[in-house]
Design goal:
EC 1.-.-.-; NAD(P)-bd_dom_sf; Dihydrodipicolinate Reductase, domain 2; 32% helix; alpha/beta; binds nicotinamide-adenine-dinucleotide; six-stranded parallel β-sheet; oxidoreductase activity; Gfo/Idh/MocA-like_OxRdtase_N; nine-stranded mixed β-sheet; Oxidoreductase YdgJ; globular
């Protein structure tokens, strides 16, 4: 694909080149390189992956050697100054897909360079960090967004539609679970797993789903977890955890949500990444299950390792289309394409004199804007603090939101002392 003759080009950068890049960013950049991006307001816009910044450069360079032509090649930067070297090539937007606890530093440096940003979930681990990124995006007239692809899952979209249209009325309670195989904690993330927990990594999908779908005000967060498989039974690394959030709605009525996650399910479990949601409303129930909605397939000597028994063909899958072209598509890729369209809209969707108005419109999209990620980040911050206390021999803490002592306040059972995790209003 050549961009000759089309002056509308978005130059992109990518931080990290691991599992999620392989599943979503790589197919997005390969497809858009082939097809460009279309919207009526912008006309065709080329999107080129120009630079990649990683810790060592090895995976990015392997890809470049094997199939770099699929994206037209890019510059690979590694080491301490990789982000600065990457932004000096002049980027319009950048995607951050490094490990969870390394997002903030990269995002800050990208926003300082005036680059539109999209970061993998969880955006950041503390509200203080969120405040800094939102202020930087504001100052430099760019947008800062986060990827929650489960909001694009057709089943979750349908539930939100029924809530939005007031067909399902007032949620009372919910239970969600997401179980990852042992290979994730044991192999894939072995390099950065110490001190981490599966709740921050995946419960965050459901925290956002609940926060965005039902609205309301977060009031209380409690959590616990188990150890002993990934790390020491008394150490800081978690096998599984259980989180509870209490919300209050405009009516004054409350709802409770429990989210259970683990990354130690046996690798030969047919459910693979097993996902379940169950919500109870005043007038109804919504039950969703990744295996029940899906496919069950067995192939001798291939399942469940090389091929999965229950594949999520909605998230991201490779296909032969009915017209015999190969493709890779799904909601995991759609969510990145939508962000690229939003950036294209800001930069090319009308006259320069109206850019600010377009930027503000895109920033007002609560599904992905960092400014609307407050209650989700607050829950993650609370979860991390509660687990940290538990690992230090101080279990069963409770975090309350916006009480008289602060925005996010941790209380230990049997103690009058309060630990303020975040001063401002959540
Ligand atoms: N949306 C989803 O469903 C989903 C699924 C998996 C992962 N993720 C998220 O994507 C992110 C990455 O996860 P992954 O599964 O790809 O991890 P991974 O371990 O497979 O890859 C991490 C990548 O980041 C790079 N890296 C590490 N430290 C870095 C640094 N300081 N600067 C630049 N690059 C650095 C590594 O070189 C590697 O390329 C995480 O935030 C994770 O939560 C999202």
């Amino acid at each position: 694909m050549s961009s000759a003759g089309n002056e509308k080009t978005l130059k992109a950068g990518l931080v990290g080149f691991g599992m999620i890049v392989d599943e979503t960013y790589r197919p997005f950049f390969e497809t858009v390189h082939e097809t460009a991006l279309y919207q009526r307001s912008t006309g065709p816009v080329e999107v080129s992956l120009d630079a990649v910044a990683t810790r060592t450069g090895s995976r990015a360079e392997k890809y470049l050697a094997e199939r770099g032509d699929k994206v037209g090649g890019f510059q690979s930067f590694a080491g301490e100054n990789a982000i600065e070297e990457m932004t000096s090539t002049g980027l319009n937007f950048a995607c951050v897909a490094s490990p969870d606890d390394r997002h903030f530093d990269s995002c800050k440096r990208l926003l300082e360079a005036g680059t539109h940003l999209i970061v993998e979930k969880p955006s950041v681990l503390k509200l203080q960090e969120l405040d800094e990124l939102v202020a930087l995006a504001d100052k430099n007239n760019v947008t800062a967004k986060v990827v929650y692809h489960k909001l694009f899952d057709p089943d979750h979209k349908k539930m939100r539609t029924l809530v939005y249209d007031n067909i399902l009325k007032h949620v009372n309670s919910g239970y969600c679970s997401l179980l990852e195989p042992k290979a994730i904690s044991g192999k894939q993330f072995a390099q950065w797993i110490t001190g981490r927990n599966p709740g921050t990594y995946v419960a965050v999908h459901y925290i956002k789903l609940i926060d965005y779908t039902f609205g309301g005000k977060l009031k209380t967060v409690t959590a616990t977890g188990q150890r002993g498989l990934v790390g020491d039974k008394d150490g800081p690394t978690w096998d599984s955890c259980q989180l509870r959030m209490i919300y209050e709605y405009d009516s004054g009525r409350e709802a409770a949500f429990d989210i259970h996650t683990s990354w130690v399910t046996p690798d030969n479990f047919p459910g693979y990444v097993e996902q379940e949601v169950s919500f109870r409303f005043d007038n109804g129930l919504w039950n969703g299950h990744s295996r029940k909605r899906g496919v069950e397939c067995t192939v001798e000597e291939k399942t469940p390792f090389e091929l999965k028994n229950s594949m999520n063909n909605h998230f991201n899958a490779t296909f032969i289309e009915p017209w015999n072209e190969r493709s890779q598509r799904g909601y995991g890729i759609e969510v990145i394409e939508q962000f690229a369209k939003e950036v294209a809209e800001i930069e090319f969707g009308g006259p320069e004199s109206e850019r600010q108005a377009r930027l503000e419109k895109i920033r007002s999209l609560g599904y992905n804007d960092l400014s609307a990620d407050r209650q989700t980040v607050a829950t993650v911050q609370a979860l991390e603090a509660i687990l940290e206390h538990q690992a230090a021999g101080d279990p069963d803490c409770v975090v309350r939101v916006n009480d008289e002592k602060g925005g996010l306040v941790l209380y230990r059972p049997g103690s009058d002392e309060a630990e303020v995790l975040y001063d401002g209003t959540v």
